[in-house]
Amino acid sequence: MPSPLPRTAAALWTGAVAAASVVLLALVAARWSPLMSLDRAVAEALHRHAVADPGLVRVSRVLTDWVWDPWTMRALIAVAVVALWWRGARTLALWVAATSLLASLLQQGLKAAVDRERPQWPDPVDSAHYAAFPSGHAMTAVVSCGLLVWVLRLYGSGPGARGAALGVAVASAVGVAATRVYLGVHWLTDVVGGALLGVALVTLTTAGYARYAAPRAPAEENRPPRA
DSSP class of residue 205? Predict the structure, then answer.
């Protein structure tokens, strides 16, 4: 039986991230002046750089529109779900698919509720649609990469693969957040909020699976992977 300390630490971490997400959501919804001023200052500084560096803008657009695009992330999740289903881990496959779907519904619901305008520029270097908060790119990347790292931890081949996957996941989360703000289509708090919500959702869903779904899953789902 695992010791209660990791479970307690995980619960504290989950609570802290969820609380930070709620606080930031409330401040953005209330248009708290100091936070809005910070957003504006960061956005204006990055936009001036972007206008002066079209080469970096092109690279950023390729990364954000193809590599870290939400549909690319969802495609990776779809591949993982099919692979899990094929190997018999059907409860886990459904859990991963449901979490990804919930993330999409949550972000769209919050966008509609907060209804925050995106940055507006006389000389934009990119464009985007729908409301700004939270960033769908950032939230989808964090949720998708987090789920993939979690699945690798459960069914991966070793710590090396998991470490590499975690590195790619962190680089993707930071990278997509940076490109969205750099391209002038999101405020800083949009991507921070999306990332926090993504982390909160992944920690909640993985804890829920360990507590409720894994003990009830068929025996073959709980076998360690073959070397």
Answer: H
